[in-house]
Write a structure and sequence with these properties.
mainly alpha, 25 helices, about 0% strand, flat
Length: about 550
């Protein structure tokens, strides 16, 4: 211990200090502990939130009740079509039923006018399912219809949007269709509970009868099955009635079960969008302050790479038959390699050009700087060179090997890409040109064209004409893999087959019979197509041959 510390500790204290220390109260226990956290406010119940109360006021009424019942009937019918029917007249019929109900449900709301405009491409694309059966290309139509219906429902709800062909619509559709309605799965049951409070006796009675029928269908199916096992006459009558109506007891039970589960989610989606829980404020404009210098430098380097690529590969792009003969390539290698080059170049153009044209702006002008626009133009022109060469190679491939569904879809995609490149070029010179809207309308128009075109019959006609002209051989196994919509062309080819090749004629006859059997197996109502009215008269001319085709 140091001297200073000893001196400070040994100094006597005054009597007043001793008295104050003795009279001071002792601190309470735990006085040195940290202060506790303030109590949290109680979390309100979901039923007490403003959004939930607003949904109850907007949904728990007769429209909500009719929406729930409509979804029950619609989803049961949809399951029957998907599981046991087939795509055909059922697609425009079901969509017409849904569109009529959707327009009634959202009548009087401040819906976006684009919701009514989208009904036109929905109707045109669905009409293709009624005209013919082309499963090789109709998956594109089905995916487009699903996207259009989701976008239309969001537009019906009146959610503020920046436009139809924007990322804002995509994000709102993603939320309003897939996620937010899951919070309101109890609303369909609440809507059914409003039956007792309905002021309209007719509505109340009709809803009760419909609900009773839906609940009785599973029990009726089980009883019919048991009675059929117990009595032969009842089984014969039940089977005759089921064959006439296209019904099966097991099918009906599955349709009702799966339809009720699907109706729970479908009605929640419709009710949620009808309630308008995602109204919110107006969307904010995206920031458009990408630095022009950075964008110009980026585009200059990419343009140099593309120009060098096109210059080096120019002979390969437009070489054609002489290059194939000199290089030892097959036509398949020559065409497919060009397609993948096109795909990568297209992805590069749209990822770079669209983003830069959207976000790069000069401070005093909404138009991108001149250097940026020139670089984007060069980008599009280089991709256009690759596109033209790819089209030439694919046409050469078709000339040698014939047309197929994949090759037709490749040519269709190239045409779509070419049109979108034109809109990007126009956007470089015209700042107010709606390139996104033009590209969206182009996609809808091209999908509508693909849906209305009888692609399978077109493929069969092209291959048959090339064979009859002597330019190539005929691939009978591939033609037999097409849908029955190609039957008229197969029958026409059979009538023009040369007599010196009986084996090929017999193989084609077997293919015709298999196609005719596939046509007969399709559902007469759900999968009906108008081209069936043209196929059946043509088949009658070959009825004498068809039973002997497999012999």
């Amino acid at each position: 211990m140091t001297e200073n510390s000893f001196t400070a500790s040994s100094q006597p204290t005054s009597p007043q200090a001793d008295a104050s220390q003795q009279s001071a109260p002792l601190p309470p226990p735990g006085a040195g502990a940290p202060a506790p956290f303030p109590p949290r406010a109680p979390v309100p119940l979901r039923s007490d939130t403003p959004g939930y109360r607003a949904m109850k006021e907007a949904i728990l009424n007769e429209k909500g009740l009719m929406t729930t019942l409509f979804c029950l009937v619609f989803c049961v019918l949809l399951c029957d079509v998907v599981f046991w029917g087939g795509l055909g007249a059922s697609v425009p019929g079901m969509l017409l039923l849904y569109e009529a109900f959707a327009f009634w449900l959202f009548r009087g709301r401040n819906s976006h006018r684009g919701a009514r405009l989208l009904a036109l491409p929905i109707g045109v694309i669905s009409l293709g399912f009624l005209l013919h059966w082309n499963p090789g290309t109709q998956f594109i139509s089905a995916l487009t219809l699903a996207g259009l219906l989701a976008a239309q429902l969001v537009l019906f709800s009146g959610v503020p949007l920046r436009g139809i062909f924007t990322f804002d619509l995509f994000s709102k559709a993603f939320l309003n269709i897939l996620f937010r309605p899951l919070e309101y799965l109890d609303f369909p049951f609440r809507c059914l509970g409003t039956l007792k409070d309905s002021k309209s006796p007719g509505t109340r009675a009709a809803a009760k009868v419909l609900l009773g029928l839906l609940l009785a269908l599973p029990m009726a199916g089980i009883l019919i099955f048991l009675f059929s096992c117990a009595d032969a006459m009842f089984e014969y009558l039940a089977d005759s009635a089921a064959d006439a109506l296209g019904l099966r007891v097991g099918h009906l039970i599955l349709d009702v079960t799966a339809g009720c589960i699907l109706a729970l989610f479908a009605s929640s989606i419709l009710l949620f969008n009808r309630g308008g829980a995602l109204g919110g404020q107006k969307p904010r404009e995206l920031s458009r302050r990408w630095d022009p210098t950075v964008c110009s430098t980026f585009l200059l380097l990419i343009d140099l790479v593309l120009i060098a690529f096109v210059a080096v590969q120019f002979t390969y792009f437009f070489g054609g038959r002489p290059l194939i003969a000199a290089g030892g390539l097959t036509y398949a290698e020559y065409a497919r390699r060009g397609f993948f080059e096109l795909a990568w170049a297209t992805a590069l153009v749209f990822a770079a050009a669209v983003l830069i044209l959207t976000f790069c702006r000069a401070r005093a002008n909404r138009q991108p700087p001149l250097l940026v626009r020139i670089c984007v133009l060069v980008l599009c022109l280089c991709n256009g060179v690759v596109l033209v060469s790819a089209v030439r190679r694919m046409l050469l491939y078709v000339e040698v090997y014939g047309l197929s569904v994949k090759r037709l879809l490749t040519l269709w995609f190239m045409g779509l890409t070419a049109l979108c490149l034109v809109w990007l070029v126009l956007r470089c010179f015209w700042s107010s040109f709606p390139a996104a809207a033009a590209a969206g309308c182009t996609v809808l128009a091209m999908v509508s064209l693909l849906s209305l075109c009888n692609t399978d019959r077109l493929i069969a006609r092209c291959n048959a004409d090339m064979f009859l002209q002597g330019s190539r051989d005929i691939d009978i196994p591939y033609l037999s893999s097409l849908s029955p919509s190609a039957l008229p062309e197969l029958i026409r080819l059979y009538g023009a087959m040369p007599e010196e090749d009986p084996a090929l004629t017999e193989e084609l006859g077997s293919a015709i019979r298999r196609q005719a059997d596939r046509l007969e197996d399709r559902h007469r109502v759900y999968a009906f197509t108008l081209d069936r009215l043209l196929i059946e008269p043509v088949e009658e001319r070959f009825e004498a041959y068809l039973p002997q085709a497999g012999e």
